[in-house]
Fold:
Amino acid sequence: MENTVNIKDYLLKEQQAGQDIDANLISLIEDVSAACKEIHTAINHGALYGVLGSAESENIQGETQKKLDVMSNEMFIRHTEKSGTLAGMASEEEEDVYSIPPQYKKGPYLMYFDPLDGSSNIDVNITVGSIFSIVRCPEGVTDPKLADYLIPGTEQICAGFCLYGPSTLMIITTGNGVQGFTLDPGSNEFKLTHKNMMIPEDTAEFAVNMSNQRFWEKPVQRYVQECIDGVTGARDKNFNMRWVASMVGEVYRILTRGGIFMYPFDTKDPAKAGKLRLMYEANPMSFIVEQAGGLSSTGRERIMELKPKEIHQRVPVILGSTNEVKRVDSYHQ
Ligand code: P6P
Structure:
């Protein structure tokens, strides 16, 4: 089947159908997809481009940066800072918020992004991705400071991720369902291939890093043990387990066949409330999952309703098929 609808065609159709999508947002999403195409090319060439391995530097998270972490961050910024659509941006790879250089026109949006999620998988050639989230800059703010960025996930107007896997996919929501676009190597365009993706409300597949089991809270230990026990325990079915160690890979699998993904609170490092970051991992993925009929919770509250306290704050994440997330939440009551 000839897939002819590209991202811009889709967004213009949504705009004509009355969705609140303006020219600035369309232009910004186009620039993000251009950055993702450049990241795709670098990843595809891998060792041939000399892009593998460590950058011999650390990010704000205290994590050793891969060369591709640094390159992807630079690509995201270069493709979007001149777009005239952003008042500023925040990146996993930047300690402070990024102000648009004075020589460039500013615009009405703020963008949060993780330019290369799962980068520890790069050197072992396993799927990685880019995640982004877009909100309106607060009214009347032209030079946003850190406090202006601390906006709850419910205010997102667009969220998406690019999955650099066997094929490269762009998954986007602007609040009217979740659409998937596949990068056509021939035309180098993202073409609409997955319309209105929906997550089945039940699943028999859980995703968690089991090596943290002894550090979890009791409700999560109970839930996972019941999955492992299957029909020999409290559940009426057996479960399968997956762990890609790339959130983008887990979320895409859940969008296609259901599942529950957990990176819950653990006591491994009491200073951290979980591993994943609220603003550029948990919030965008929560928007996408909810738009696809799923749920996304800390175990105790809806992630998108959290009032952010800092730009790199971490949060426990339990997301996916509605009935399983509801069960985990009920164990926390
Ligand atoms: P672990 C990647 O580093 C990431 O932020 C998520 O994409 C992924 O789900 C998780 O961390 C993997 O964590 O502890 O299994 O390496």
